[in-house]
Amino acid sequence: MVQRIARLRRNPYNTASNRVKIVKTPGGRLTFQYLEKRSKGAHCGDCHAPLHGITRYVRTESSRVSQTSKHVTRAYGGSRCAKCVKNRIIRAFLIEEQKIVKQIRKSKAPELRRRERAIEKQKAATLLREQKAAKEKAEKLAQRQPRRADKQTRAPRKQKK
């Protein structure tokens, strides 16, 4: 017949915090061995991937362990993974570059406006010249070829039957 086993602690229910494993002792008896909860471990705050190089500690154990085993020696060591740190550095660099470009444009803005206005004036002048040239050309053609005033003087065409 199978041996009955009673839980040693006060909580008799099979809850997440009261998990047990049946173990046979050297005397041949079956007893419960209480299991500790496993922690999920540290995860990246941005991409939620598990962090490498950081050991998993159960709740109170992490407070007793030294700081060097809880983080990696890098910026954002214990909270962000290497890829996310790299992306943050690149993003920060690009933002700084953008600010510098903005300042340069702001300092060169009056000069650029002057150039744009000069270019617009040149375009307007060339457009006026082209229009004048087109008018003159049209006038010359009109003077060379007189228009026919009497189009009805032609003989009407005969229709085929």
Explain what the structure shows:
This is 60S ribosomal protein L34-A. InterPro entries: Ribosomal_eL34, Ribosomal_eL34_C_sf, Ribosomal_eL34_CS. Residues 124-153 have a biased composition (Basic and acidic residues). It comes from Blattamonas nauphoetae. Residues 124-161 are annotated as: Disordered. By secondary structure, the chain is mainly alpha-helical. The protein has a domain at 1-35. Helices cover 43% and strands 6% of the residues. It is built from 2 helices and 2 strands, in the order ββαα. A two-stranded antiparallel ribbon has the order 1-2. Strand 1 (20-24) and strand 2 form a beta hairpin. The longest helix is centred in the C-terminal third of the chain and has 63 residues, at 82-144. The protein is elongated, with a radius of gyration of 45 Å. The mean pLDDT is 87.
